[in-house]
Amino acid sequence: MTDPAANAELALLLEVAGTPKPGNVDRHRDLANLRFEHFLAGAVGARPGLDLAAGGAPVGEAFETAVEGMSRQSGGNTQFGCLLLLVPLVKAAAAGDLSPDGVAAVRDATTVEDAAGFYRAFEHADVAVADPPQGMDALDVRCGVDAVPVLRDRDLTLADVLARSEGDANAREWREGFPRTFRAAESMLADDGPMADRAARAFLDLLAGSEDTLVRVQHGPEVAREVRERAAGIESTAEAEAWADELVERGVNPGTTADLTAAALFVALERGAEV
Amino acid sequence: MTDPAANAELALLLEVAGTPKPGNVDRHRDLANLRFEHFLAGAVGARPGLDLAAGGAPVGEAFETAVEGMSRQSGGNTQFGCLLLLVPLVKAAAAGDLSPDGVAAVRDATTVEDAAGFYRAFEHADVAVADPPQGMDALDVRCGVDAVPVLRDRDLTLADVLARSEGDANAREWREGFPRTFRAAESMLADDGPMADRAARAFLDLLAGSEDTLVRVQHGPEVAREVRERAAGIESTAEAEAWADELVERGVNPGTTADLTAAALFVALERGAEV
Q1: Residues A153-162 pLDDT 10s
Q2: What's the pLDDT at A250?
Q3: For residue B1, what pLDDT is reported?
Q4: Which of the four, A3, A195, B149, B242, has the lowest number of CB atoms within 10 Å?
């Protein structure tokens, strides 16, 4: 009998351990003010929220609790995006259907209160996000708790909010039933060797497969395209190592791809991958 | 409000992340069949047992549960010794007295059932131990559950058993009220920089301070003395790094000193050290 909350926490830890993951904190690299140990503390801190999700609590409550706990370390935002993917996956696993349909059912059952929990979570962490789409200013996630009355007025569930988050790779997973997550999990299961190494390889595949949201938000579409193309051309671990050093140096951090990697690790662990 | 179980799990993670810790798995080094990710999984797996300890369960039950969970990874024994120190410390913290007296009170309250849990824990992990003292053959920990009737016959508590474990540094902490653990925790609190770096420095100090039990069991007293003396002579991180490579190469693994480091990290976190 597996415990989905424990596997989710382990997925967070294996994700950050996987190396090289170009541009991200990994077992061999820290960023300037964001260190490996901040991710360790973030993963442990997220556990009570993950336990809530595994116990059947609403997505919004579980997510806000996870983010609040994650944030009790001095590095800032470590795993906000990972948790946005993991919470519905943990709920689907706990309900006995960890599949695209199962997680779509979790999504479709979300309420306005779940959306409120999502917005409140932004109060606990400094998350880099794009400007909201036209007409959505009052629902800019950077408004945090101030957006909650607007959610209630417009009767928007968390699924509604994420359906409107165009261009965000994590919101896209929510909308589409986590296709990239499940595909990457199957690649990891078909791969061999230590799980953290499989995670690093899956990270590069995901990065080659589509542009990283965080890179686009922080550096613009041209850098996002360049990073994707470069990832697609990597042919050896040595090349990946050199590129990892280069991206850290340039401050280019494909963090959304790391979120997807953590989500895929969780699915792989639930489907029998062993450390 | 801190959660002692969460801090104990984080202590396990920070301990293995700390580098260089000569001879041990650390952020930059794996051993042949014992990898960094086995320690991540071991820490997550130990959590239910640590939660039991924080909730006031008996030491033996909490310890056996922690070891059983820790062992659900393919690397073998990762944190048996750490957990033997952490469980009574977590209980003392949860009871509001994380001090030499507080942990001595936990020790003095142990029962024959706690001793039985300790012996049963050896069924879950392959732990390297010395031969038992004369007249103690029937209580060799390697007997595991078979020793339990003997414990009952002789009415031996866990404190009694550990009082008879001569030459074991972890048992000595139990006997003496964890003096090295609390001293190393105070050094970490007085130190500065990232906690994993403080842990690596504390590890070297502890190793210079007394011979490592696991090194003596596996390689004999001369190697244990050599390692202690060498640790005392280390004067720079560069020297420590080179020595770390050398010890991994030789298969000399000061694992008991890592146990003490994890215990000290827990005390430091409970006393306000922040990641």
Answers
A1: 999 999 999 9
A2: 96
A3: 56
A4: B149
State the burial class of residue B109 (Cβ atoms within 10 Å of its Cβ: 0-12, 13-18, 19+). Answer: middle
Cα within 13 Å of Cα(A254), Cβ side: 33
Q: Cβ distance A248 to A23 under 8 Å?
A: yes
CA pseudo-torsion sign B33, B217, B89, A74: negative
pLDDT in tens, B171-208: 999 999 999 999 999 999 999 999 999 999 999 999 99
Chain B environment of A43 (Cβ under 8 Å): 13
Closest CA to B144 of B40, B203, B64: B64
What is the Cα Rg of chain B in Å?
A: 17
pLDDT value for A1: 56
Which residues does A contribute to its contact with B (CB < 8 Å)? 3, 6, 9-10, 13-14, 17, 27-28, 35-38, 40-41, 43-45, 47-48, 73-75, 194-196, 274-275
Angle of CA points B12, A80, A7, to nearest 5°: 45
What is chain A's length? 275
Which residues, listed in sequence order, are joined to residue B29 by a DSSP beta bridge? B26
pLDDT at A38: 98
Tokens read off for B261: 């480091």
> What CATH number does the domain located at B4-270 have?
1.10.4200.10
Question: Sign of the CA dihedral A246, A250, A252, A258?
Answer: positive
Give the domain ranges of chain A: 4-270
What residues have CB less than 8 Å from B167, skipping those under 6 apart? B130, B213, B216
CA dihedral B185, B191, B197, B203 (to 10 degrees): -40
Closest chain B residue to A199, measured at CA: B37
- Contact at CB, B40 and A73, closer than 8 angstroms: no
Please judge whether A196 and B36 are an interchain contact, meaning their C-beta atoms are less than 8 angstroms apart. yes
- Split at pLDDT 50, 70, 90, the class of B2 is confident
Which one is predicted more confidently, A143 or B27? B27
Question: For the stretch B212-246, what's the b/e string if a residue is b when 16 or more beta carbons lie within 10 angstroms of its beta carbon?
Answer: bbbbbbbbeeebbeebbebbeebeeeeebeebbee
Cis peptide before B132 (omega within 30 of 0): no
Contact flag A275-B36 (C-beta cutoff 8 Å):
no
pLDDT classification of A32: cutoffs 50, 70, 90: confident
Contact A41 B9 (CB under 8 A): no
**Across all residues in chain A, what is the average pLDDT?**
96
Chain A hits for B3, Cβ within 8 Å? 48
Burial of B130 (0-12, 13-18, 19+ CB in 10 A): middle
Which tokens sit at A106? 């979790």
Mean pLDDT on B80-86: 98
Single-letter amino acid, residue B248: V
Contact indicator for B51, B44 with CB cutoff of 8 Å: no
Structural tokens at position A120:
């409140």
